[in-house]
Amino acid sequence: MAVSHDRVFLDRVATAVLEVDEDRHTLRRYGDGYGGYLAGRAAERARRQREHEEWKAELARHRALADTHIDRFTAIPARPRPRSAERAPSGPGHGRTAR
Questions:
Q1: 93 vs 31, residue with greater confidence
Q2: Rounded-to-integer distance, Cα 69 and Cα 1, Å
């Protein structure tokens, strides 16, 4: 085992690279030495980018739906809220204590 930031050294010597992610508190293993580490990181970056693009597309779809139907929501009249004396009784015993 060696700890190094020397990429040439790692490329020549390492058969696997372990990466400590301080923010996520995780440890990841990449096989095939430093080249495998670089390939693995590139694949992760591409996956995260793809997921982000999918999320943005879904968000745009939801916004378009909301914009399309906003007039329906604003056309719904607001129901007046009953005053506390006019509220219907609710629950067992209607708020009275059981004897």
A1: 31
A2: 60
Rounded to whole angstroms, the Cα distance separating 65 from 69 reads 6
54: pLDDT strictly greater than 80:
yes
Cα 81 to Cα 99: distance, rounded to the nearest angstrom? 32
- Say if residue 34 is exposed, middle or buried (CB neighbours under 10 Å; 0-12, 13-18, 19+): buried
Residue 31, beta-bridge partner list? 16
Q: What confidence score (pLDDT) does residue 76 get?
A: 80
Burial (Cβ within 10 Å: 0-12, 13-18, ≥19) of residue 36: middle
Beta strands in the chain (DSSP E): 16-21, 26-31
